[in-house]
Design goal:
Helices cover 46% and strands 13% of the residues. The protein has 955 residues and is of the alpha+beta class. It has 6 domains: 85 residues, no CATH class; 195 residues, 2-Layer Sandwich (glyoxalase-related enzyme like fold); 183 residues, no CATH class; 164 residues, Orthogonal Bundle (DNA polymerase, domain 1); 110 residues, OB fold (Dihydrolipoamide Acetyltransferase, E2P) (Beta Barrel), CATH 2.40.50.140; 71 residues. It is globular, with a radius of gyration of 36 Å.
Amino acid sequence: DEPQLLDFAYRRGIPIVATNEPYFAGREDHEAHDALLAIAEGRLLSDDQRRRVTPEHGFKSRAEMMERFADLPEALSNSVEIALRCSFRPKATKPILPRFSGEGTSADEDAELDRQAGEGLRARLAAHGLAPNLSEEDYRARLVFELDVIKRMAYSGYFLIVSDFIKHAKLNGIPVGPGRGSGAGSLVAWSLMITDLDPMRFGLLFERFLNPDRVSMPDFDVDFCMNRREEVIDYVRERYGADRVAQIITFGTLQARGVMRDVGRVLELPYGQVDKLTKLVPINPANPISLKAAIESEPRLSGEASADARVARMLDIAQKLEGLHRHASTHAAGIVIGDRPLEEVAPLTRDPRSGMLVTQFNMKWVEPAGLVKFDFLGLRTLTILQTAVELLARRNVNIDLASIPLDDRATFEMLQRGETVGVFQVEGSGMRRALVDMHADRFEDLIALVALYRPGPMANIPVYCARKLGRERVEVLHPKLEPLLRETFGVITYQEQVQQIARELAGYSLAEADLLRRAMGKKIKAEMDAQRGRFLEGAQARAIPPATAEAVFDACAKFAEYGFNKSHSAPYALLTYQTAYLKANHPVEFLAATMTHEMSNTDKLAEFRQECARLGIKLEPPSINRSGILFEVADGAIRYALSAIKGMGGQAAEAIVKARGTEPFRDLADFARRIDPKLINRRALETLVSAGALDDICSERSTAFASVEAVLATAQANESDRLSGQENMFADAAAEPASIRVPKVPPWTASEKLQKEFAAIGFFISGHPLDEYKDVLKRLGVQSYAAFAKGVRAGMTSGRLAGAVLDRTERRTKSGSKMGIVLLSDATAQFEAILFSEGLANYRSILEPGARVLVEARAGVEGEDLRLRIETVELLDNAAARIGHSLKLYLRDARALEPVARCLSETGDSQVSVIAALEPNGREVEIRLPGGYRTTPQIAGALKAVPGVTAVELI
């Protein structure tokens, strides 16, 4: 075709251009690109039917192009000319924001900001009062100062936009966080309801947020209720135009482990081999290691590559692909708002799930393009707080979390005991220990703890505690530091304190001090040297001895390496306090709300179940007649949510609640008549039975389980009748449902019942497998895990525990030997224990899921975690038989003796005697059965199921 095209171009005078279709840099990258295509399509490299390109699709060099188009030099010249014409470097654009008031001017926005801030401050002070030692004039002066800075920097519109969508959320009952980041330091923000902490009361600085000496956009990160965040975004789209609001794209990249798995799959390497190799790459989410560095640092990786050409090929391809984009998604929080259709500002795409516009510029490039980012974050804690408040309102207890006292005695007493399960930010054992050591008794302690409990400043927690409790003197480097560090007992805790120190000791303005703080944080030597000179000079002018000034500067510089922003710590401490307040004063509603919003996390639900038990709060099992879709509160107890049962989901739970209406289900037939079989399938129904949710209409779970097929068949028949009845005007809608033939099946043992319950719920709710062993455990000197853990933290190193085995996994250690990880449960907790190769070989057959075992363990504390190592294991039944019991059976009459004897004959011989008690003529007669028997709590349970046995007692 080329001669015809050239002829056509010459006849028409159309310039010709030499092109190349490159997909990769050079021929050496062809195989890696081919693998990338296979990864993208989910195909194998060997698949001949997939899309391919050739090695010729690399980027041609100048020499290659000149050789290929030697007969058309003008085509090459034209290519160069086009390339020069296309060379364009976009300029950074000033921030583009819509006018808050439509077609108004910036002066109009300034006036509106003045008005709203002034009115807002009056309302805030009327509601909350003045901070101690401050006058209304102090507040007014600070407000005027901030407004002046905001208007000079032309950010009035930004503040008004943020305030507007937050006010909209609050007016519509959408929970909004008290603040996040440095924005909480702005009095204007507090006045506009953007934040909910008085910055003057808590010593928060505006200059930490907006610095006239450091021109950058203000950045309010706003937390919203997790479930209703989208409503706020919808409001913004409606107010400013859907074509002017967009999410921000993010790109997922191929990282070391992931790219190894992807390449290994398309090369058809065995999964186990690839999995083993990827696990040799260290994990560090904060600073991911490159594959090249992993190979250099891990000799086993390079050794495998030397020994196996396929592994070498995989690692070579993987290194070439590492860091490339794998997929696109949307930023978790970022939204941009423009003053014009965004297609005029940035390339766009659409989110396939919501249909909302998405910028194709990522976070790094949206700002230079002129787009202003607003962070709309979803925070589960706000949703939990709102749900708890709504549950309280149902029993006419109305709480405004913005108005609760910040010195509630019950709240701080609970925190001092470290009872923080479910409390925002302070659930970890390290945080709990710090609260106890600190004897936290004021809101400022929580602010300090949020700031200090991080790598680096964590070392100052013991100093803070010792000084607070008077065990150590509070010392400062100069008297002028005392009022600045009084709140934190002489410990530099916040970045704002560094700014205040620079102002008081060296004459910095707070804006200049913010630049000092940033320089210290970046540790750039030239900047640090300049700032040191400026600081020492200012200190000398204030008669501060040079040695003292040097020491203060060095202390501030050291702190700045890990310094924390008090303006962020304070609002998050408020959320901690609010959750603690609700737990301390209204634990039932708080835990019900927490469980509702953690129901997809079985481990957390199990933890909250233990907390309910510790607090004496009854957790009622699920019931199709009494449970709701979510966790609910009734008569001081928490009722388990239908949608939290495994395999149910919200739709099926909603269908049951809707079908129930105000009339409880009477029996299986009534249930079958009213449910929708399209929403409640066999698996969901079996899970409901296993969870005990049908106990109200069929008390024997084994019978209900065996009736599942009949219930579903009846439900489907009734559904067909309903559909045909729509066309039959004479259908008898009031007809009673036909009864369901209930099969006769043996009842589940207590053990079976609990195991099925565990499978359906994720933990034991109606009892625990160890319940029947209570007397045995006492005689064996077994500790609960909760008591054992407390002892270990106090210095104990070994103990005797019992547990039901929930799971056992095995893996290889670095040395290549096998180790086991066993998940156990007792009445106080679920806990993990490890055993190494010899122990695993000895006890593997015992440690099967469902087994109840006695464990001798050694333990220690590593960081915040307890580490248990199993020394020996024994089945609890064997231990029970070893210590021996007499067994007393209460029989209805003598006819029960024969089946009892059969049951006992299957247990094996032992030394334990069995006594049968009958009551002929109302007088108890005891019969000692001949011989000795093996008796355990499990055997006692089996005897209880024998017809005619009314009770079994271990004596």
